[in-house]
Amino acid sequence: MKKVLFDGPVEPQFIADCIAKHAAKKDIGAHSIFLGQVRADTLEGKQVRAIEYTAYDEMAEKQFRSIREAAFGLFGLSCLHVVHSVGMVPAGELSLFVFASSPHRRACVSAAHYVVEQIKEKVPVFGRELLEDGTFAWKKNN
Amino acid sequence: MKKEDLTAIVLSGGRSSRMGRDKGLMPLGASTLAGRALKTASQVAGAVMLIANKGGYEDFGYPVYADLYPQNGPAGGIHSGLVHSTTEQNLVLACDMPLLSVPLLKHLSEQVNGDHEITAPVHLGEVQPLCAFYVRHLVQFLEEFIRSGKRRLNDLLRERKTRYVPIDSSLPFYAPGLFTNVNTTVDLAAVESTDAAKVKVLFFGRLAEITRRRELELQLQVPGTLDRLTDVLAGRFPALKNEVFTVAINQAIAATGASLREGDEVALLPPYAGG
Predict the structure, then answer these.
(1) Which segment of A112-116, B107-111, B183-187, B250-254 scores lowest on mean pLDDT?
(2) Going by DSSP bridges, is the β-strand pair B6-11/B89-94 parallel, antiparallel, or unpaired?
(3) Are B28 and B98 in contact (CB under 8 A)?
């Protein structure tokens, strides 16, 4: 399986190319795509300019693999692709790409939702928010 | 032999000339040399006593006696121990052999019988009188032995009914270092390093900032547990006590009370921010 962690933001063109590649898979009837974007939150009056992601690489890849296996087991998927950014991702750009495909719509919608929730809960990725004044604040999922 | 029929006499009365400081009180892992010997002894003997000629041994919680005939080396210590013992059989243990194990002592105790006055192990051709069983009635003979100027324990063993028990690799608990003797701080360091499990600790996110490290190698006293490791880390990096984190061992979230082995990779993980 390909590595999930990817250096830098996910480029929109990459997403478009991924969709185009799946035209060849004739058994697919639906795709569900989730995109995580860095939001320009305001923390103590300061705007978030970017998030710098770091990860416990080996364990993160292991967790991604097991989430993928679970998703295939739980839902009737044809395909699943996940890309998560590491490094600096500016506000407004994409840090997570989940692309699930299935013959019928319900499976891929449920699977995409499942995968995103599992990633937030199980994958050791850490984030520092870079604020407009150049300082950093550690981010926590909720 | 039943535990209640055995007294352990832990000897820590030596001059420790090469160590520079009282050998028995030298730290070993989370304890001291004497502490380790006492802990081992208390697992096989119902009564335990310490023979020491300097202060500092009162806090172990065992009776401490001095040599009645000082400056006579271990023979004086054994004599003093036998005087204070209330049991027939007595296990004499030197505090400077930290790798003596409970299975070894149990094996030796099984070889003790009424035909012999002393039961001592032999390892690689060397007799080990300071990990041996002595009957109490030897106290009289020992007194004469000392007063006649004799001190060498091997002579004592030769003059009495001694059973020699070979200790070799045919025994399930055998380890070549069982009788390792610690005389210098270098010896002690060598024992500590064989006695410890080396683990790699990884810090992430905020924790790496606080400790100013991404990774650290630690020697953890065997048997090592996660709780012990977190205690050691909190001792070294007090700011960690205020932090919330989960722990992974070899890339899987660890259960509380998990034990650690040589070569384990332990990761301290602050709250996730992925997705």
Answers:
(1) B183-187
(2) parallel
(3) yes
* B270 min Cα distance to partner chain A (Å): 8
Nearest CA in chain A to B269: A124
Q: Tell me how far apart the alpha carbons of residues B92 and B11 are, in angstroms, rounded to a whole number.
A: 7
Say yes or no: A141 contacts chain B, CB-CB below 8 A.
yes
Q: In chain B, what residues touch A56 (CB-CB under 8 Å)?
A: 202, 204, 248, 251, 267, 269
* Token output for B23: 């050998």
Interface predicted TM-score of the whole assembly (ipTM), two decimals: 0.92
Interface contact B275, partner A, CB < 8 A:
yes
% of chain B surpassing 90 pLDDT: 62
CA-to-CA distance for B270 and B205, rounded, in angstroms? 6
Would you call B103 exposed, middle or buried from its count of C-beta atoms within 10 A (0-12, 13-18, 19+)?
A: middle
A128 vs A137: CA distance, rounded Å? 5
CA distance A139 to A45: 16
Query: Which residues are CB-neighbours of B74 under 8 A, at least 6 positions away?
Result: B11, B14, B92, B94, B129, B130, B153
Rounded Cα–Cα distance for residues A55 and A5 (Å): 8
Count Cα neighbours of B149 within 13 Å in the Cβ-side half-sphere.
Answer: 0
CB contacts of B272 in chain A (<8 Å) are: 120-126, 140-141
Q: Does A43 touch chain B (CB under 8 A)?
A: no
Residue of chain A nearest B205, judged by CA positions: A126
pLDDT reported for residue B193: 62
pLDDT (0 to 100) of residue B191? 73
